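Consider the tokenized backbone below.
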């Protein structure tokens, strides 16, 4: 029975003129076990995401028909999928989200935990788990929801060899025992091809093969496709000496290799010589470390000596403490006892989550002056305009490594550097590490990729039970290991000596060496040195930096002095007459703060996605500008005075705000994501007002509202302003002022969305912030005071209220500019990115 019917599917990401998928047509039946394979960036993750749910943004053509109710998805980014603190909370979260009862949730959690064998992890903190454990928890939490199909994106990338085999066995059980359709996108095909019924290969966003594993190997061999390097060791070995054979697992490959050796002479590769330096670069002595509230230390009395100019690979099971050891060496964690001695220079650390290294909006900004050279070496040129977070797993790894290499570190600590990478890239990266080693760099790798460690490392160390149990050269390490070893070593064991890599396996057969191209000079010249800066330019930048620091320091001291002077702790007082003097003096340090924090970069850099002003925008403007003030005035004049009067007016204003919301957004069909973003921004404004409660008129609320309107549009800006004032007054006190504050603050965001819908820059946004708070918010609130607190309303009274309110409004306006300068650029970029990536408010 057909589950998926994909017809002529094409898709391109927002802002990209290159299709990630092109004319994909597939049919997948219920109960199938399908592998999606292809090089990094071929479209595997994109296709899985579209099979899970329609794209939020971007351009999609073609059709995807799904014959089920719910698709379970396990992403390649494990931390992004975990949302709860405890493992059992994570298992229950999905079941609760789909509306199961408490008894049903309890039953699902218990059965799932038993099926996956994770009873011992149920009460563990999710953030204390290893990457491999998190992947298993993600799979279990999805299965607890009883999906119709299981979609997995690089599920083996963070699993050790033993756990990987167990994970594949779980998938086979899920497929056979539960009859569930399983679709896996993966680079590590060794254990999957032998159990999958079907293999679909993508190349540059197109389906180039669809069939069983045997036909896939034949297709790759006939076309000499680079994907042949992804195939199991037996397939690659047979292809080097004869027609390719579907030797998809170790037993079949070992039988063929033994038989071949009986009829031909096998050649034992020469053992690698010991060329390591005697000088230590990293010395670890009696190291111990344990996480808070853990029953025992994860690192216990560990000692390790890493030589200068060497490549050391640390392997071990999931949760053994490999990533923890790297964090201790680089100093992000502090050991309980023991000593770590570093005899090198700068340390570069690649964490398991490579996104931690990115802080810019595009790859070009990340690499700055070295961008063209670096991306060419790592084959990332076509991704220069993309946001680092929008890349596939393999592309993120490449970009993070490229940034680390360009940094020019002397010691590289790499945590799972080949995670989600294809075989050709691994070979390129191995060549890069060897070149860096030749340049005197010291490299430490934590990896579950046994083949990569065997090809690249000088020393392999096994971390077990909190300490290094064995540390040997690869030839001895993999020859002596039965479990933590390569498929090549298993195939050649007791048949041919000194074979532990695919290259060695092929060489022992006298086969043709696989050709990855000339990589020797691919990374030449990438040292990470910054380009020289002319002396005059350097002096100018230094003077500007000192000037800003002086302004920032004087402004901070002056602002603190003015605030403390009002408390009476000083033996003197600032004159209270004229009344505006204190506020004028307070504005001086605030202006200094503005000069000190003003950024050089322009806020026009983030992509602008706002559309033209629509009729719904005009209707919303009429409603908010006419109906709400009219309601407040009528309520003030005609509703009898009483304890509930202001609440009735607030209710009426809220109804009108909701009416404006529905009128402006009904045709746009706002999604849950739209509402969630509005709620978060409103909460941030409320928190900011509460945080600065001790400073009268010095609040970040208006800045957040203005940025919200600028990034997300007029209606979004109005709603953030109105809701933030309503909710924050639950803390500060409701009253007749609440509807006026909602209206005035909403207009700040509304007009910001209209004025900056096409173009913006820092100066224009600051000028708008100053004038809008001073004129719009201040003017409306001053008039509201007249209407609320006086009965004799005339021009003289209104003028008096406005003039007396100017000092307060000026402080509010200047403080808003300060907050826009401090937080505006970052918040604006984040909001714009959310709008582009998820298609918000379109």
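A designed sequence for it:
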């Amino acid at each position: 029975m057909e589950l998926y019917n994909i017809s002529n599917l094409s898709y391109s990401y927002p802002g990209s003129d290159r299709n990630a998928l092109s004319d994909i047509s597939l049919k997948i039946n219920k109960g199938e076990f399908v592998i999606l394979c292809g090089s990094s960036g071929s479209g595997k993750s994109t296709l899985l995401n579209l099979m899970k749910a329609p794209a939020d943004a971007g351009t999609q053509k073609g059709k995807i028909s799904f014959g089920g109710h719910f698709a379970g998805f396990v992403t390649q980014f494990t931390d992004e999928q975990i949302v709860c603190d405890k493992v059992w909370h994570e298992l229950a979260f999905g079941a609760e989200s789909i509306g199961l009862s408490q008894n049903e949730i309890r039953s699902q959690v218990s059965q799932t935990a038993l099926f996956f064998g994770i009873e011992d992890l149920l009460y563990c903190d999710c953030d204390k788990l290893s990457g491999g454990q998190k992947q298993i928890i993600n799979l279990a939490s999805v299965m607890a929801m009883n999906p119709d199909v299981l979609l997995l994106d690089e599920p083996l990338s963070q699993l050790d060899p033993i756990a990987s085999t167990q994970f594949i066995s779980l998938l086979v059980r899920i497929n056979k025992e539960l009859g569930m359709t399983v679709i896996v996108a993966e680079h590590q095909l060794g254990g999957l091809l032998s159990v999958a019924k079907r293999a679909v290969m993508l190349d540059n966003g197109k389906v180039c093969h669809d069939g069983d594993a045997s036909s896939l190997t034949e297709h790759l061999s006939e076309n000499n496709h680079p994907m042949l390097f992804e195939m199991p060791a037996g397939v690659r070995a047979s292809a080097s000496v004869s027609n390719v054979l579907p030797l998809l697992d170790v037993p079949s490959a070992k039988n063929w290799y033994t038989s071949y050796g009986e009829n031909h002479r096998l050649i034992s590769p020469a053992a690698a010589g010991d060329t390591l330096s005697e000088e230590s670069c990293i010395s670890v002595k009696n190291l111990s470390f344990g996480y808070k509230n853990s029953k025992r230390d994860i690192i216990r009395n560990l000692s390790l000596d890493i030589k200068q100019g060497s490549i050391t690979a640390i392997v071990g099971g999931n949760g053994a403490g490999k990533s923890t050891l790297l964090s201790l060496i680089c100093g992000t964690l502090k050991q309980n006892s023991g000593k770590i001695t570093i005899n090198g220079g700068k340390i570069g650390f690649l964490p398991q989550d490579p996104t931690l290294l990115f802080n810019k909006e595009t790859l070009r900004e990340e690499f700055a002056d070295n961008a063209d050279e670096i991306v060419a070496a790592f084959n990332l040129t076509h991704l220069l305009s993309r946001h680092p977070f929008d890349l596939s797993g393999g592309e993120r790894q490449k970009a993070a490594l490229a940034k680390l290499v360009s940094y020019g570190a002397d010691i590289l600590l790499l945590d799972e550097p080949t995670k989600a990478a294809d075989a050709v890239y691994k070979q390129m990266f191995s060549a890069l590490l060897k070149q860096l080693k030749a340049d005197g760099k010291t490299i430490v790798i934590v990896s579950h990729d046994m083949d990569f460690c065997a090809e690249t490392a000088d020393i392999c160390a096994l971390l077990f039970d909190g300490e290094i149990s064995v540390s040997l050269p690869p030839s001895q390490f993999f020859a002596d290991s039965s479990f933590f070893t390569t498929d090549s070593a298993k195939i050649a064991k007791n048949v041919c000596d000194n074979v532990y890599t695919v290259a060695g396996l092929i060489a022992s057969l006298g086969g043709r060496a696989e050709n990855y191209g000339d990589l020797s000079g691919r990374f030449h010249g990438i040292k990470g040195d910054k380009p020289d800066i002319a002396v005059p330019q350097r002096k100018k930048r230094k003077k500007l930096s000192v000037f800003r620091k002086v302004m920032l320091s004087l402004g901070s001291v002056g602002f603190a002095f003015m605030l403390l002077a009002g408390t009476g702790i000083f033996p003197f007082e600032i004159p209270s007459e004229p009344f505006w003097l204190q506020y004028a003096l307070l504005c001086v340090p605030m202006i200094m703060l503005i000069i000190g924090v003003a950024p050089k970069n322009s806020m026009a850099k983030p992509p602008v996605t706002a559309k033209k002003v629509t009729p719904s925008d005009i209707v919303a403007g009429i409603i908010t500008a006419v109906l709400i003030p009219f309601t407040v005035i009528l309520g003030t004049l005609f509703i009898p005075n009483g304890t509930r009067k202001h609440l009735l007016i607030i209710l009426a204003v809220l109804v009108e705000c909701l009416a404006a919301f529905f009128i402006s957004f009904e045709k746009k069909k706002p999604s849950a994501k739209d509402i969630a973003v509005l709620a978060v921004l409103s909460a941030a404004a409320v928190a900011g007002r509460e945080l600065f409660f001790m400073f009268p008129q010095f609040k970040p609320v208006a800045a957040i509202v203005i940025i919200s309107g600028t990034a997300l549009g007029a209606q979004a800006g109005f709603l953030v302003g109105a809701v933030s004032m309503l909710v924050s007054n639950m803390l500060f006190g409701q009253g007749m002022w609440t509807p006026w504050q909602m209206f005035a603050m909403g207009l700040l965001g509304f007009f910001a969305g209209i004025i900056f819908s096409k173009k913006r820059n820092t100066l224009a946004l600051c000028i708008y912030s100053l004038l809008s708070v001073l004129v719009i918010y201040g003017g409306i609130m001053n008039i509201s005071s007249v209407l609320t607190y006086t009965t004799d309303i005339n021009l003289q009274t209104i003028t008096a209220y406005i003039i007396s309110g100017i000092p307060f409004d000026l402080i509010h306006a200047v403080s808003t500019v300060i907050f826009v300068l401090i937080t505006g650029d970052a918040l604006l970029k984040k909001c714009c990115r959310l709008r582009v990536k998820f298609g918000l408010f379109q």
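The chain has four domains: 2-233, 280-493, 533-597, 605-838.
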